[in-house]
Write a structure and sequence with these properties.
The protein is α/β, with parallel strands linked by helices. Helices cover 34% and strands 12% of the residues. It has a single domain, classed as Alpha-Beta Barrel (TIM Barrel). The strands form 3 sheets. A 6-stranded parallel sheet has the order 7-8-9-10-11-12. The protein has a 3-stranded parallel sheet with strand order 1-5-6. Helix 12 links the parallel strand 11 and strand 12.
């Protein structure tokens, strides 16, 4: 599996012309047919994210933005981390998408400015959003922790990001933003205490690594992560497993074109689901809630069929002995699945479990449906029964993340 860090160093994987920046015309506000909660969007951390948020002794080592070779670059503990332009491509023509390091003014402002983000959510008809970090922290906060050899600095940086996310990003519009924390990965006991502390502060979720072994950390099967998993189960903190949070993505041969990785990107969600399922974490912690973010739903019915098929000889392995529920039943109980653009699979929503399907906009990434999110949803689910539409567009997410939607917005998507 190719490393995402290596892929992101390849600034020439597209036909984009270096330095060319074009903004598309400002879109019109979309007609709203549905109340929508998007459970996968992203933040490009603004330059002041960490300012004044780390202890004074770390002031010179805290992440900060510098201007280097015409791009904005993060410097963290003496190391350069590019502000990857691929993190924020909405509002730009597809032919300009690349991993070329970017400047903030080359991104649509909603990528990094919460007030403009809300305006862009209004344009596309998204009521509430759960936002993941981007390249600087890593999707599971791993880059803030594995880039430095100082665990105290790593913890301070994670806490600083979480403080900023809760106070500045979500705090500015608490009815519109669902708080999602970075985990502390270097010590599971400390990480668990952070989950408990953050749950009391209002965090509803944590973005964890889909495959920590790929980051050089202990595997899911080792029991190492049990303190954090127990804390998540006890506090109802949803464990979000975002595609790419292991730092890898599915691929084939080394000389395959980059399109291969792009097409197969969803597949790690299926790999992660199986790995987490057979780690028995959702068996040991039956109340845990695991969400496979940006993984799509097209593969889920096929996996359920395969899990049922395996029942014929799973005793050969012995892994699932003495467990009352089948693997497929645990998958349908403990896992939630996020539709990006999966028009065919909604016909199989009952096989997946219509109560466990969510939708996402993925702003400001290349998979984003912005600014046409309402139109895309209408095309994909507009003919479903109204009760199923409500579940998929907002009710399931509101229940999973304990983020209530005002009655007037639930009744009328134009009410906000």
């Amino acid at each position: 599996m190719p490393s995402l860090d290596e892929l992101e160093k390849n600034t020439g994987f597209t036909t984009a012309v270096k330095g060319k920046v074009t903004f598309l015309p400002e879109p019109d506000r979309q007609e709203r047919a549905y109340t929508v909660i998007s459970v996968d969007d992203h933040i490009v951390e603004p330059p002041d994210t960490f300012e004044g948020r780390l202890p004074a002794k770390f002031a010179d080592r805290a992440p900060r933005i510098v201007d280097k070779d015409g791009a904005h670059v993060w410097v963290y503990d003496g190391q350069d981390i590019p502000n990857v332009g691929f993190n924020a491509v909405v509002g730009r023509p597809v032919e300009e998408y690349s991993f070329e390091p970017a400047r903030f003014e080359h991104m649509r402002r909603g990528a990094w400015d919460i007030h403009h983000r809300i305006k862009d959510m209004d344009l596309s008809g998204v009521y509430a959003s759960l936002c993941f970090p981007s390249f600087l922290p890593g999707f599971a906060g791993q880059r803030l922790q594995l880039t430095t050899k100082d665990p105290e600095l790593a913890l301070a940086a994670v806490r600083a990001w979480n403080d900023w996310h809760l106070e500045e990003w979500c705090g500015a519009y608490p009815d519109r933003m669902i708080p999602c924390q970075l985990p502390y990965l270097l010590d599971p006991e400390v990480g668990a205490q952070e989950i408990y502390r953050n749950a009391e502060r209002g965090f509803k979720a944590v973005t964890f690594s889909e495959g920590p072994h790929a980051l050089g950390l202990p595997t899911l099967h080792s029991g190492h992560w049990d303190p954090i998993m127990r804390a998540c189960a006890e506090t109802q903190t949803v464990v979000n497993l975002h595609i790419g949070s292991s730092g890898t993505s599915p691929g084939t041969s080394d000389d395959a074109p980059p399109d291969v990785v792009g097409v197969l990107f969803f597949a790690y969600a299926m790999y992660a689901a199986v790995d987490w399922l057979y780690s028995l974490i959702p068996v040991r912690y039956p109340d845990i809630r695991i969400c496979l973010s940006e993984g799509g739903i097209g593969w889920v019915p096929g996996l359920l069929d395969r899990l049922d098929h395996m029942l014929g000889y799973h005793r050969m392995y012995g892994t699932w002995e003495g467990i009352q529920l089948t693997p497929a039943e645990v998958l349908k109980r403990n896992f939630w699945f996020c539709a990006v653009e999966d028009p065919t699979t909604f016909a199989l929503r009952d096989r997946i479990g219509v109560d466990h399907i969510l939708v996402e906009q993925d702003y400001p990434h290349c998979d984003s449906t912005w600014p046409y999110t309402q139109r895309v949803l209408a095309e994909e689910i507009g003919t479903l029964p109204p009760a199923d539409i409500r579940k998929i567009t907002w009710e399931n997410a509101a229940g999973l993340y304990r983020h209530p939607v005002p009655a007037e917005v639930a009744a009328d998507p134009n009410a906000y």
